[in-house]
Amino acid sequence: MTPLREDLSFESDGETCAAWRLRGEGSSYSTAAGRPCVVMAHGLGGTRDSGLLPFAEAFAGAGLEVLLFDYRCFGDSGGEPRQLASPRRHRRDYAAAVEFARRLDGVDPDRIVLWGTSWSGGHVVHVAAEDSRIAAVIAQNPDLDGIRTLGMISRYGGPGQLAKLTWHGLRDRARDLRGAPPHLIPTVGPPGTIGAMTSEGSDSGYHAIAGPTWTNELTARAVLDEARNRAVTCASRVRSPLLIQVALGDSIAAPSACPVVADRAPRAELVSYPIAHFDIYLGEARERAIADQLEFLSRRLDGGAGGPDEPAARRA
Q: Residue 3: its pLDDT value, please?
Protein backbone atom coordinates (compact mmCIF):
# COMPACT_ATOMS: atom_id res chain seq x y z
CA MET A 1 0.00 0.00 0.00
CA THR A 2 1.33 3.44 -0.96
CA PRO A 3 1.80 5.70 2.10
CA LEU A 4 -0.52 8.69 2.23
CA ARG A 5 0.93 12.15 1.69
CA GLU A 6 -0.10 15.10 3.83
CA ASP A 7 0.43 18.66 2.57
CA LEU A 8 2.27 20.84 5.09
CA SER A 9 4.28 24.06 5.01
CA PHE A 10 6.85 25.77 7.19
CA GLU A 11 8.64 29.10 7.29
CA SER A 12 12.25 29.69 6.29
CA ASP A 13 13.55 33.23 6.70
CA GLY A 14 9.99 34.53 6.48
CA GLU A 15 9.08 32.67 3.30
CA THR A 16 6.97 29.53 2.92
CA CYS A 17 8.36 26.12 2.00
CA ALA A 18 5.85 23.54 0.77
CA ALA A 19 6.29 20.00 2.07
CA TRP A 20 4.80 16.54 2.07
CA ARG A 21 4.65 14.47 5.21
CA LEU A 22 4.58 10.69 4.84
CA ARG A 23 3.75 8.85 8.05
CA GLY A 24 5.65 5.76 9.04
CA GLU A 25 3.86 2.43 8.87
CA GLY A 26 4.00 -0.41 11.39
CA SER A 27 5.78 -0.45 14.72
CA SER A 28 9.41 -0.45 13.56
CA TYR A 29 11.46 2.43 15.00
CA SER A 30 8.52 3.57 17.16
CA THR A 31 9.33 4.45 20.77
CA ALA A 32 7.68 6.50 23.49
CA ALA A 33 9.51 9.53 22.09
CA GLY A 34 8.12 8.94 18.59
CA ARG A 35 9.56 7.81 15.26
CA PRO A 36 12.66 9.04 13.43
CA CYS A 37 11.96 11.52 10.62
CA VAL A 38 13.85 11.69 7.32
CA VAL A 39 14.12 15.28 6.03
CA MET A 40 14.57 15.34 2.26
CA ALA A 41 15.01 17.80 -0.62
CA HIS A 42 16.28 17.62 -4.19
CA GLY A 43 19.50 18.62 -5.88
CA LEU A 44 20.28 21.48 -8.27
CA GLY A 45 17.06 22.95 -9.66
CA GLY A 46 15.00 19.98 -8.46
CA THR A 47 11.51 19.75 -7.01
CA ARG A 48 10.02 17.26 -4.57
CA ASP A 49 7.86 15.67 -7.30
CA SER A 50 10.89 14.78 -9.45
CA GLY A 51 11.98 11.24 -8.68
CA LEU A 52 12.14 11.43 -4.88
CA LEU A 53 8.80 9.88 -3.88
CA PRO A 54 9.99 6.26 -4.31
CA PHE A 55 12.70 6.93 -1.72
CA ALA A 56 10.28 8.70 0.63
CA GLU A 57 7.69 5.92 0.29
CA ALA A 58 10.30 3.28 1.04
CA PHE A 59 11.28 5.08 4.24
CA ALA A 60 7.64 5.44 5.32
CA GLY A 61 6.98 1.80 4.50
CA ALA A 62 9.88 0.82 6.75
CA GLY A 63 8.38 2.75 9.68
CA LEU A 64 10.07 6.16 9.36
CA GLU A 65 8.37 9.53 9.20
CA VAL A 66 9.33 11.62 6.14
CA LEU A 67 9.32 15.37 5.46
CA LEU A 68 9.98 16.02 1.76
CA PHE A 69 10.08 19.71 0.86
CA ASP A 70 10.67 22.23 -1.93
CA TYR A 71 13.26 24.97 -1.43
CA ARG A 72 12.11 28.55 -1.41
CA CYS A 73 11.60 29.85 -4.95
CA PHE A 74 11.07 26.34 -6.36
CA GLY A 75 8.08 24.13 -7.02
CA ASP A 76 5.12 24.82 -4.74
CA SER A 77 7.11 26.94 -2.29
CA GLY A 78 6.94 30.73 -2.09
CA GLY A 79 9.77 33.17 -2.57
CA GLU A 80 11.16 35.50 -5.21
CA PRO A 81 12.89 35.54 -7.56
CA ARG A 82 11.72 32.19 -8.90
CA GLN A 83 14.36 29.52 -9.55
CA LEU A 84 16.90 31.16 -7.22
CA ALA A 85 19.47 28.41 -6.66
CA SER A 86 21.72 29.18 -3.69
CA PRO A 87 23.63 26.69 -1.51
CA ARG A 88 23.46 29.06 1.48
CA ARG A 89 19.70 29.54 1.18
CA HIS A 90 19.07 25.86 0.55
CA ARG A 91 21.00 24.93 3.70
CA ARG A 92 18.94 27.41 5.71
CA ASP A 93 15.80 25.79 4.29
CA TYR A 94 17.09 22.39 5.43
CA ALA A 95 17.77 23.75 8.92
CA ALA A 96 14.27 25.25 9.07
CA ALA A 97 12.80 21.93 7.90
CA VAL A 98 14.67 20.09 10.65
CA GLU A 99 13.31 22.41 13.33
CA PHE A 100 9.82 22.03 11.89
CA ALA A 101 10.12 18.24 11.83
CA ARG A 102 11.24 18.18 15.45
CA ARG A 103 7.94 19.80 16.44
CA LEU A 104 5.70 17.41 14.50
CA ASP A 105 3.47 15.10 16.50
CA GLY A 106 4.80 11.57 16.59
CA VAL A 107 8.37 12.55 15.67
CA ASP A 108 11.33 11.83 17.95
CA PRO A 109 13.22 15.16 17.86
CA ASP A 110 16.52 13.42 18.59
CA ARG A 111 16.24 11.02 15.65
CA ILE A 112 16.20 13.34 12.66
CA VAL A 113 17.82 11.96 9.50
CA LEU A 114 19.13 14.25 6.77
CA TRP A 115 18.82 12.91 3.21
CA GLY A 116 20.29 14.67 0.21
CA THR A 117 21.09 13.90 -3.42
CA SER A 118 23.50 15.55 -5.85
CA TRP A 119 23.67 19.25 -4.81
CA SER A 120 21.70 18.57 -1.64
CA GLY A 121 24.03 15.66 -0.85
CA GLY A 122 26.54 18.36 0.00
CA HIS A 123 23.98 20.55 1.75
CA VAL A 124 23.15 17.84 4.29
CA VAL A 125 26.82 17.49 5.24
CA HIS A 126 27.01 21.23 5.93
CA VAL A 127 23.80 21.19 7.99
CA ALA A 128 24.90 18.15 10.01
CA ALA A 129 28.22 19.85 10.76
CA GLU A 130 26.26 22.65 12.45
CA ASP A 131 23.66 20.49 14.23
CA SER A 132 25.04 17.85 16.59
CA ARG A 133 21.55 16.48 17.28
CA ILE A 134 21.22 15.01 13.78
CA ALA A 135 20.94 11.23 14.16
CA ALA A 136 22.16 10.16 10.71
CA VAL A 137 22.96 11.53 7.25
CA ILE A 138 22.55 10.03 3.79
CA ALA A 139 24.40 11.72 0.91
CA GLN A 140 23.48 10.15 -2.44
CA ASN A 141 25.66 10.91 -5.49
CA PRO A 142 26.69 14.01 -3.56
CA ASP A 143 28.35 17.19 -4.77
CA LEU A 144 30.91 17.48 -1.98
CA ASP A 145 33.52 19.76 -3.54
CA GLY A 146 32.40 22.54 -5.87
CA ILE A 147 35.90 23.13 -7.19
CA ARG A 148 36.13 19.53 -8.36
CA THR A 149 32.62 19.76 -9.78
CA LEU A 150 33.55 22.82 -11.82
CA GLY A 151 36.54 20.83 -13.01
CA MET A 152 34.13 18.17 -14.27
CA ILE A 153 32.49 20.80 -16.49
CA SER A 154 35.87 21.64 -18.00
CA ARG A 155 36.53 17.94 -18.49
CA TYR A 156 33.37 17.16 -20.47
CA GLY A 157 32.74 20.58 -22.05
CA GLY A 158 36.19 22.07 -22.28
CA PRO A 159 37.51 25.28 -20.66
CA GLY A 160 35.33 27.33 -22.98
CA GLN A 161 32.17 25.84 -21.50
CA LEU A 162 33.16 26.86 -17.98
CA ALA A 163 34.13 30.33 -19.21
CA LYS A 164 30.70 30.78 -20.83
CA LEU A 165 28.90 29.65 -17.67
CA THR A 166 31.02 32.03 -15.59
CA TRP A 167 30.04 34.91 -17.91
CA HIS A 168 26.36 34.02 -17.47
CA GLY A 169 26.87 33.89 -13.70
CA LEU A 170 28.50 37.32 -13.65
CA ARG A 171 25.69 38.72 -15.77
CA ASP A 172 23.12 37.37 -13.32
CA ARG A 173 25.05 38.74 -10.33
CA ALA A 174 25.24 42.18 -11.94
CA ARG A 175 21.49 42.16 -12.57
CA ASP A 176 20.90 41.23 -8.94
CA LEU A 177 23.04 44.14 -7.73
CA ARG A 178 21.00 46.52 -9.91
CA GLY A 179 17.71 45.10 -8.60
CA ALA A 180 16.84 43.74 -12.05
CA PRO A 181 15.10 40.42 -12.72
CA PRO A 182 17.50 37.46 -12.68
CA HIS A 183 19.30 36.04 -15.68
CA LEU A 184 18.31 32.39 -16.02
CA ILE A 185 20.03 29.46 -17.71
CA PRO A 186 18.78 25.90 -18.26
CA THR A 187 19.40 23.52 -15.41
CA VAL A 188 20.21 20.76 -17.88
CA GLY A 189 20.76 20.46 -21.62
CA PRO A 190 22.40 18.37 -24.35
CA PRO A 191 26.19 18.38 -24.71
CA GLY A 192 27.51 21.59 -26.23
CA THR A 193 24.60 23.77 -25.10
CA ILE A 194 24.50 26.26 -22.23
CA GLY A 195 23.22 24.73 -19.02
CA ALA A 196 24.38 23.91 -15.51
CA MET A 197 24.60 20.21 -16.44
CA THR A 198 25.32 19.26 -20.06
CA SER A 199 27.36 16.07 -19.84
CA GLU A 200 26.38 13.03 -21.87
CA GLY A 201 23.10 11.61 -20.53
CA SER A 202 22.30 14.55 -18.26
CA ASP A 203 19.47 15.97 -20.35
CA SER A 204 17.66 12.66 -20.83
CA GLY A 205 18.40 11.62 -17.24
CA TYR A 206 16.89 14.70 -15.64
CA HIS A 207 13.85 14.73 -17.92
CA ALA A 208 13.22 11.06 -17.08
CA ILE A 209 12.47 12.00 -13.45
CA ALA A 210 11.05 15.51 -13.94
CA GLY A 211 7.75 16.12 -12.16
CA PRO A 212 4.92 18.51 -13.11
CA THR A 213 6.25 21.45 -11.07
CA TRP A 214 9.83 21.17 -12.38
CA THR A 215 11.07 23.98 -14.62
CA ASN A 216 14.27 23.64 -16.60
CA GLU A 217 15.87 26.90 -15.51
CA LEU A 218 17.75 28.43 -12.61
CA THR A 219 19.59 31.61 -11.71
CA ALA A 220 22.99 31.64 -13.42
CA ARG A 221 24.71 32.94 -10.27
CA ALA A 222 24.66 29.36 -8.98
CA VAL A 223 27.74 28.73 -11.13
CA LEU A 224 29.66 31.37 -9.16
CA ASP A 225 28.45 30.00 -5.82
CA GLU A 226 29.69 26.52 -6.72
CA ALA A 227 33.35 27.41 -6.15
CA ARG A 228 32.54 28.03 -2.46
CA ASN A 229 30.14 25.09 -2.19
CA ARG A 230 32.58 22.69 -0.51
CA ALA A 231 31.22 20.25 2.04
CA VAL A 232 34.67 18.67 2.09
CA THR A 233 35.82 21.58 4.28
CA CYS A 234 33.41 20.81 7.13
CA ALA A 235 33.23 17.00 6.96
CA SER A 236 35.44 16.54 10.02
CA ARG A 237 32.77 18.29 12.13
CA VAL A 238 30.02 15.83 11.19
CA ARG A 239 29.63 13.62 14.27
CA SER A 240 26.53 11.83 12.99
CA PRO A 241 26.76 8.51 11.14
CA LEU A 242 27.12 9.39 7.46
CA LEU A 243 26.39 7.17 4.46
CA ILE A 244 27.98 8.36 1.21
CA GLN A 245 26.74 6.68 -1.96
CA VAL A 246 28.95 7.40 -4.96
CA ALA A 247 28.25 6.68 -8.63
CA LEU A 248 31.61 5.70 -10.09
CA GLY A 249 30.51 6.83 -13.56
CA ASP A 250 29.29 10.22 -12.35
CA SER A 251 30.19 13.04 -14.76
CA ILE A 252 28.40 15.77 -12.76
CA ALA A 253 29.29 15.53 -9.05
CA ALA A 254 32.95 14.60 -8.74
CA PRO A 255 33.25 11.02 -7.39
CA SER A 256 36.82 11.76 -6.28
CA ALA A 257 35.55 13.99 -3.45
CA CYS A 258 33.58 11.18 -1.82
CA PRO A 259 36.47 9.15 -0.34
CA VAL A 260 38.04 12.38 0.92
CA VAL A 261 34.90 13.23 2.90
CA ALA A 262 34.55 9.63 4.04
CA ASP A 263 38.08 9.76 5.46
CA ARG A 264 37.46 13.05 7.25
CA ALA A 265 34.02 12.37 8.74
CA PRO A 266 34.51 10.29 11.92
CA ARG A 267 31.54 7.95 11.39
CA ALA A 268 31.29 7.72 7.62
CA GLU A 269 30.56 4.75 5.39
CA LEU A 270 31.22 4.75 1.66
CA VAL A 271 29.32 2.62 -0.86
CA SER A 272 30.05 2.76 -4.59
CA TYR A 273 27.97 1.78 -7.62
CA PRO A 274 29.04 1.24 -11.26
CA ILE A 275 26.46 3.74 -12.57
CA ALA A 276 26.10 7.27 -13.93
CA HIS A 277 24.68 10.21 -11.99
CA PHE A 278 20.98 9.94 -12.91
CA ASP A 279 20.84 6.13 -12.93
CA ILE A 280 20.28 6.05 -9.16
CA TYR A 281 16.77 7.52 -9.48
CA LEU A 282 15.33 4.67 -11.55
CA GLY A 283 15.03 0.90 -11.75
CA GLU A 284 17.44 -1.58 -10.27
CA ALA A 285 20.03 1.05 -9.27
CA ARG A 286 17.41 2.92 -7.26
CA GLU A 287 16.24 -0.24 -5.52
CA ARG A 288 19.78 -1.15 -4.55
CA ALA A 289 20.44 2.37 -3.26
CA ILE A 290 17.25 2.31 -1.19
CA ALA A 291 18.12 -1.10 0.24
CA ASP A 292 21.54 0.18 1.31
CA GLN A 293 19.98 3.29 2.87
CA LEU A 294 17.46 1.24 4.86
CA GLU A 295 20.16 -1.16 6.02
CA PHE A 296 22.31 1.78 7.13
CA LEU A 297 19.45 3.33 9.09
CA SER A 298 18.51 0.03 10.70
CA ARG A 299 22.01 -0.10 12.20
CA ARG A 300 22.47 3.55 13.01
CA LEU A 301 19.19 4.76 14.43
CA ASP A 302 18.81 2.55 17.48
CA GLY A 303 21.26 4.56 19.53
CA GLY A 304 20.30 7.94 18.07
CA ALA A 305 22.71 10.84 17.75
CA GLY A 306 24.01 10.48 21.27
CA GLY A 307 25.50 7.01 20.82
CA PRO A 308 29.26 6.40 21.10
CA ASP A 309 31.48 7.06 18.12
CA GLU A 310 32.26 3.95 16.12
CA PRO A 311 35.07 3.19 13.68
CA ALA A 312 34.18 4.29 10.16
CA ALA A 313 33.14 1.43 7.92
CA ARG A 314 34.16 1.07 4.28
CA ARG A 315 32.35 -1.00 1.66
CA ALA A 316 32.94 -1.15 -2.07
A: 81
- Binning pLDDT at 50, 70 and 90, where does residue 1 land? low
* Burial of 215 from C-beta contacts in 10 A (0-12 / 13-18 / 19+): middle
Q: Which CATH superfamily is domain 5-145+230-314 in?
A: Alpha/Beta hydrolase fold, catalytic domain (3.40.50.1820)
pLDDT at 164 over 60: yes
Question: What are the residue boundaries of the structural domains of the chain, listed by start?
Answer: 5-145+230-314
Please give the share of the chain, as a percent, with pLDDT higher than 70: 95
pTM of the model: 0.94
pLDDT surpassing 60 at residue 314: no
